[in-house]
Amino acid sequence: MIERFGGYNHNLRIGDGEFYEMTNLTSDDYPILSPRSKRGVYASPENPQGLISKDSLCYVDGSDFVINEYRIDAKLSTAAKDCPKTLVSMGGYVIIMPDKVWVNTTPKSDGSYEFDNIEATVTTKTSTTFTHCKLDGTDYSQENITYGTTAPEDPENLDYWIDMSTVPHTLKQYSDKSAMWVAVATTYIKISATGIGTPFAVGDGVRISGVEIDELADLNNTMIIQGRDDNYIIVIGIIDQVKTQAAASPITIKRQMPNMDFIIESENRLWGCRYGLSVDGEFVNEIYASKLGDFKNWYSFEGISTDSYAASLGTDGQFTGAITHLGYPLFFKETCMHKVYGNYPANYHIQTTNCRGVQKGSEKSLAIVNEVLYYKARSAICSFDGSLPAEISSALGDVPYGKAVAGTIGNKYYVSMQDANEQYNLFVYDTLKGMWHREDNTRAVEFCNCRGELYYIDYADNQIKTVKGTGITDASPVKWEAVTGVIGTDSPDKKYISRLDVRMKLTHGARVYFYVQYDSTGEWVQLYAMDGITLKSFSVPIRPKRSDHFRLKIVGEGEAKIYSICKTIEQGSDL
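Above: the chain's sequence. Below: its structure in token form.
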């Protein structure tokens, strides 16, 4: 008597309650065998390329970002298909990669949404003036200031003197109380040109290039903007006199974001990794973190706790995925995992663990169910609870899979993978029951859990669909199938199965067929068919012909529940 149906097991020898092949079955009614629920259609965009959960489901459609059915023309890069976007949430913002665009998901008073590029570049079109100034932009020419290699005689309190006897020069201020010239700790240069400060903010780390004045050559570097207006920026530095660079020699100010393979959010910072060419054209193998609370700044280095962060790695190979797990950023390669400890740049520490990492091309298989991380490794699907990965996919057999995309809802891990024949399969792993089920050939581009529903982009028809049926529910009944393993190989003494009794329930309009394949001939013979008339359970007597072994296939359409399968075994002769 088989009363517990254990799910999918694609191995040569499987349990009585398991199935070698399966379509559209679920563990929802375990130990009863039943088909999955109907799915739904949430939206039918022209070119969906990314999903993210905010107050509602948001998605990318071509060059637009859609939030609460409001379309934002963010001018994203597009292609007819296969132009995937990575959407990362940080506070009330969504960052869209690889376009490096941000969207504020809090609407303005007029109902519209603010968006812009993370990067910004200004190249001057007018002459550029360099002035020694205070932090508020006040020119020192308005103060009593002296230039020279020797200190002024008979100075008054708070007079200024630029000491030109040292390199670099030093700004000093006279104090009556101490009767001394005291060095001013920080000095500033105002760089003025029409529109030079428009896209920037105070605290931005920018890269300045094109300064041709010898005295100011050190400005061709990464600098922190200390003050700004539309027509000037203020940076740390010192200059003796006002200098001007002609419009024919433009200066470029850039706020840049590193090229990154993958990007995640952790502890109010964006994190990323890169194995390849940087924005400067140099080969790098690095992990990055943005400035605390500021996803626009990746080159802000002032020696404080809110600084940006960058670190080089010694492991070889491309990055294959990234995720935040239990508060720690994790970066994967196929053969290892990098875990970042610490809470500010000075105490960040990267621990490298040699283990099964994420398979190349399966970066979207990373998903968390009940604090446990699941992902597709090269030869298995693994679970990671914070110590070491463990394989959970032995039931999938020795079929090689790749290009895995996963999502989670409740206790279930959904993963769509491509097999060696380039056929996609949607599997579901019930983490609570430890069972796999195969649903169908869905190729999911991306999954997203939002408000108790699991959404996914169906590659075949470009629709955003739902697992639980939210939206427009599919009207057609679910077609399902289950194929047992070989029955009879474990029966010694010439025993054979003379009768099968299946106890099941069919709803009105449902239909079920039973087929048998004798002695591995490859031919399926129909044994029984039943239509659901009323909602009641009944027994289906099946009498297979005498054989050495056989396999049973159950094919159904509509709602059904199979409670048990009873095998009657009889003793046979030696012939």
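The first strand starts at residue 7 and ends at 8.
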